[in-house]
Fold this sequence. Notes:
Layout: H1 3-11, H2 27-43, E1 45-48, H3 54-70, E2 73-77, E3 103-108, H4 118-123, H5 126-136, E4 141-142, E5 150-155, E6 161-164, E7 170-177, E8 181-182, E9 185-188, H6 192-197, H7 199-206, E10 215-217, E11 224-227, E12 233-236, E13 239-240, E14 245-253, H8 262-269
Antiparallel strand pairs: 1-11, 2-3, 3-5, 4-14, 5-14, 6-12, 7-11, 7-14, 8-13, 9-10, 9-12
Amino acid sequence: MELNTLISKISDIINLDKYPIHDLESEAGRVLLAKARQEFNSNSLIVLNDFLRPEIVSHLAAETLEDDVTKSFCFTGSNNVFLGTQEVQNLSPDHPSYLQKIYTKRTLACDQISSDSPLKVLFQWNPLVTFVSSIVGQEVYRSADKLGAMTVHIHHNKDEQDWHFDVSEYTIVLHILAPQKGGVLEYVPCSRSEVEEDTEALAKIIRGDRHSLTKDLPTIPGVFVLHSGKLSMHRVTPVEGTIPRISATMSFNRTPNFQLNEYTRQLYFGRNE
């Protein structure tokens, strides 16, 4: 696809006038990047409002609701806060990271999302990778995981996602549909070292004691979020009402050809391939 044609297609998906991530050398691009770096360095997270075009948000919501019926995997269970990552795989069974709450959520894996979906087009667009790399201050690569590189999550009434650290280092979250109530991303920036070293600090967060650094991000359709989920403990609060919460995630890492571990694949997709 020619460059101008691709940029035109991307501009139908995201607001390049407001967020010129394809031209970071321009004055507007430099201003955008400087603000994004400052916010990320302060909060380990950035939020860009009105990133997705409203027409695309509506299209993705309708497409996801249709695919949810026939394709999505329904997870019911509990998770380990560290999602089976190697450095904590030998924890004792009574360690507080083994959560007891049973919750539900639905997921569309990367291989279930159409290749011509606006989400896939955006994920494969190289300037997006450059933008992420420029914000976090190091070169990153798209996840190569067949299931988890890019996913869509659907939270219906009473669905949630309990506290966890991501397996991937950096994650883009795109908000597509907001529930009537709940579905808030609660996020404790750069908390991994603290809770690995202090099990009581971990236990307090799990039992509902609000950490002083906790930030709340409501679901607002069209919003772009970039966060360092491997270092920052986070969860999605229970959804309430007949309208589900829909979001898409795109994963990035410092190492190329990154793959999820078997624990996470089985947990959230019910399969390894």
